[in-house]
């Protein structure tokens, strides 16, 4: 079965939020819109976003670094949000493996949000419906678009090509090759949800403090700036905090 997914390269994400804004623009004007923004300039803003970028400070001087960590629905192969939905609004599409929401059936009960261990579901306060990343399902199969544009809006907007898109069940796809060759990993695999989205781990830090430095110097025995396990620790709390922004 086809399983479309994102692979995000944590080495080159610069935290510019182009993925966030392009996602918001496309989905507000697409099948999933409109996505509400309540009190955007007040002290207590609230809005609906399918994609968010969380930023971490990691390490100690002189090996300190800033890590930008994009996160959205992971389109799990065994999504816990689907069986708990009392109306069948949440479902996994067979032809491409995407986890989607039928807004005509959604009653905003939040069961899917409670079941998701990654905090990837959000309640649109204006519509009283649960929303999430669709991987631009209304775009990737749109034959009226040039083939090069049949990708999620976030992938097309990324200025550093940190986001890859493809079928992880196809061993020759760009995402499968990246996972295989660069040690791509899933978030919290112990939950048994089999997340489709993967992350490419950070490179080892060099003596001058940058994993991408071209000076050729290295620090003997230096560890990854932020190991996968450290990202996963406390991720649920961070995710739930993000949904309240």
From TrEMBL:
4Fe-4S found in the keyword field: yes
Pfam families linked to this entry: Fer4_11
Domain 4Fe-4S ferredoxin-type: from-to ranges: 4-34, 63-95, 97-126
InterPro entries recorded: 4Fe4S_Fe-S-bd, 4Fe4S_Fe_S_CS, ET_IronSulfur_Cluster-Binding
Domain of life, source organism: Bacteria
Record bears the keyword Iron: yes
One term of GO molecular function: 4 iron, 4 sulfur cluster binding
Coiled coil residues, start to end: none
Keywords: 4Fe-4S, Iron, Iron-sulfur, Metal-binding
UniProt protein name: Sulfite dehydrogenase subunit B
Organism expressing this protein natively: Paraburkholderia solisilvae
Gene that produces this protein: soeB
